[in-house]
Write a structure and sequence with these properties.
This protein is mostly beta strands. It has one domain: Pnp Oxidase, Chain A (Roll), CATH 2.30.110. It is 13% helix and 37% strand. It contains 3 helices and 9 strands, in the order E-E-E-E-H-E-H-H-E-E-E-E. It starts with 20 loop residues before the first strand and ends in a 19-residue tail after the last strand.
């Protein structure tokens, strides 16, 4: 079998994690924020944990460091405009949550907001982190998963085929 010719590709983002997510957080002073995160994934199933990678210069970085928690919000296509806005604006320049008319609700277990319109919200407590170069990977123990009732199967699992991801 002969392989087709291949050239060297960009190493920066050669493995594109899916789905696109917004991470929401709340500082110890009560300040809420959310940011688009390109590095996110499962990292343990027992106990259930996820990791998110955040560049230390991002506004939300210190909010998560201080509070020790965050929420991973899975985004569907209906949320594209808000995702794009939150991913391209910094809280340093104004109240982007208010500007984008983002609906928030308090977490059930962590002191961080959920993005109400997202189909799945995963509440996490930071249990560890590691600096991997450009990002700090926050390891979050999953405390609670909120999902729209019409995407939850009888056994409690999420039917991801019912989400029209970005």
């Amino acid at each position: 079998m002969i392989l087709s010719e291949k050239g060297q590709a960009n190493m920066k983002s050669c493995l594109q994690p899916l789905p696109k997510v917004l991470v929401s957080c709340r500082g110890i002073n009560g300040e809420d924020n959310a940011l688009a995160v390109g590095y996110c994934g499962n990292c343990s199933y027992d106990p259930p944990m996820v990791m998110v990678g955040i560049v230390p210069t991002r506004y939300s970085y210190n909010l998560i460091k201080e509070s020790g928690c965050f929420v991973v919000n899975l985004v569907d296509k209906k949320y594209r405009e808000k995702f794009d806005y939150l991913g391209s604006h910094s809280k340093r320049d104004g109240n982007k949550l208010l500007d984008a008319m983002v609906s928030l609700q308090d977490g059930k277990f962590v002191k961080a907001p959920l993005l109400s319109e997202c189909p799945v919200n995963i509440e996490c407590t930071v249990v560890d982190s590691i600096v991997t170069g450009s990002h700090e990977m926050f390891i979050g123990k999953i405390e609670y998963v909120h999902a729209k009732v019409d995407i939850i199967n009888a056994d409690g699992t999420i039917d991801f085929s019912k989400i029209d991801f970005l």
